[in-house]
Design goal:
With about 350 residues, this protein is α/β, with parallel strands linked by helices. The chain folds into 2 domains: about 1-115 and about 295-310, ATPase, nucleotide binding domain (Nucleotidyltransferase, domain 5, 2-Layer Sandwich), CATH 3.30.420; about 125-285, ATPase, nucleotide binding domain (Nucleotidyltransferase, domain 5, 2-Layer Sandwich), CATH 3.30.420. The chain has 11 helices and 11 strands. The protein has helices at about 35, 45-65, 80-100, 105-110, 160-170, 175-185, 205-220, 225-250, 270-280, 290-295, 300-310, and strands at about 1-5, 10-20, 25-30, 70-75, 100-105, 125-130, 135-145, 145-150, 255-260, 285, 340. The strands form 2 sheets. It has a 5-stranded mixed beta sheet, sandwiched between helices. It has a 5-stranded mixed beta sheet with strand order 8-7-6-9-10. It is globular, with a radius of gyration of 20 Å. The termini are far apart. About 50% of the residues are buried. Bound molecules: adenosine-5'-triphosphate (ATP) and magnesium ion (MG). Adenosine-5'-triphosphate binds near residues 9 and 79.
Length: about 350
């Protein structure tokens, strides 16, 4: 079955066709990065206008050489309301015109399963880590549509923290790739930035770390020239926390697989640390290819296939800018007996 996925929740206009939830036949991404760069962040009104201008051409390109489309999937949240509406209305109109089933997809769910497209043998159950521009979630994925969120960020997401620190260092937007690149030239042990482990909870918190970088820059203005060491030390702190907590949770819940998704999963240091920990623990870590780490529609189409397979589709969808990650059916997860009660390690 060929599923056409459409993604417009933030600043990427994307469309892709995926066969049977696994094989990418086309994957078109039109990024608005250049439009938002001078504002050092995304301007919602500019984002939705650009989606309107681009979406038809992007879809046309995605379906040009892929043959038939059997079903459609579109992101319905979380995201920017105007941007989400462009995708939803386009998808609804096409589903009606082509008489195809349509599935609404949670953007977080799409990130959660993005590694599936590069790893044909990856199946739930696994522990999912979503590290994106707006979210940091640690989730037990028992099956498609069956989730138990262990923890999430209490303040800034990992991606937001990368972007804000990059902005302080005048490295431009988006900050993650710039910090990743600059950090390669620095010493990760140069500055002992704090590691917010939040022991006793599976939650994350990165705003204190961001403030620590700010205080460092205020207290030692002469050291701003040492931007490579600052990037390497900051990145080391974030990736230490993400690696430690994720592997601890996988061990506590007896999960042998971890799947990481979202823009920060592109980070080279995070990938390196997960690989090292993976070899030590025997817990396998799966990452999406770099192009599938950030927003794309192939991951939307992949989840759309599994949702459609379970008989879920609708010609009329609701968008929700704050859509939470919820189960497709009522949960039957046997995970209520946490080794720490309801909280984590
Ligand atoms: N190599 C990298 N290292 C660290 N962070 C990165 C890297 N590449 C991208 N990022 C970060 O990923 C984020 C963008 O990821 P993504 O596209 O998944 O987020 P989003 O869609 O805006 O947010 P969400 O998925 O939460 O709605 C940005 O914060 C960016 O700085
Ligand atoms: Mg995203």
């Amino acid at each position: 079955m060929n599923v056409l996925g459409i993604e417009s929740s933030c600043d990427e206009t994307a469309a892709a066709v995926v066969k049977d939830g696994r094989k990418i036949l086309s994957n078109i991404i039109d990024s608005q990065e250049k439009l938002h760069r001078r504002f050092r962040g995304i301007v919602p009104e500019i984002a939705s206008r650009s989606h309107v201008e681009k979406i038809n051409a992007v879809i046309e390109k995605a379906i040009q050489k892929t043959g038939r489309v059997d079903a459609m999937a579109v992101t319905v949240g979380p995201g920017l309301i105007g941007s989400l509406l462009v995708g939803k209305m386009t998808a609804e109109a096409l589903a009606w015109a082509w008489d195809r089933p349509l599935v609404g997809i949670n953007h977080l769910e799409a990130h959660l399963f993005s590694a599936l497209l590069d790893s044909p043998r990856l199946e739930p159950p696994f522990l999912g880590l979503i590290v994106s521009g707006g979210h940091t979630h640690l989730v037990i994925v028992e099956d498609f549509g069956k989730y138990k969120t262990l923890g999430q960020t209490r303040d800034d997401s990992a991606g937001e923290c990368f972007d804000k620190v990059a902005s302080m260092l005048k490295l431009g937007y988006p900050g993650g790739p710039a910090i990743d690149k600059t950090a390669k030239l620095g010493n990760p042990k140069a500055i002992p930035f704090p590691r917010p482990y939040l022991t006793g909870s599976w939650d994350f918190s990165f705003s204190g770390l961001k403030t620590a970088v700010l205080y460092y820059l205020n207290d030692f203005p002469e050291k701003i020239s040492n931007v490579e060491d600052i990037c390497a030390s900051f990145q080391s702190a974030v990736t230490d926390v993400l690696t430690h907590k994720t592997f601890l949770a996988a061990k506590r819940y007896g999960l042998k697989k971890i799947a990481v998704g979202g823009g920060v999963s592109a980070n080279s240091e995070l990938r390196k640390k997960f690989n090292i920990e993976s070899r030590k623990s025997g817990i396998r870590a799966y990452f999406p290819s770099l192009i599938l780490s950030t927003d794309n529609a192939a991951m939307v189409a992949a989840v759309g296939f599994y949702k459609h397979q379970r008989g879920i589709s609708s010609k009329h969808l609701q968008v929700d800018p704050s859509l939470p990650l919820t189960n497709w059916e009522k949960s039957s997860l046997p995970f209520s007996l946490s080794p720490f009660g309801e909280r984590g390690g």
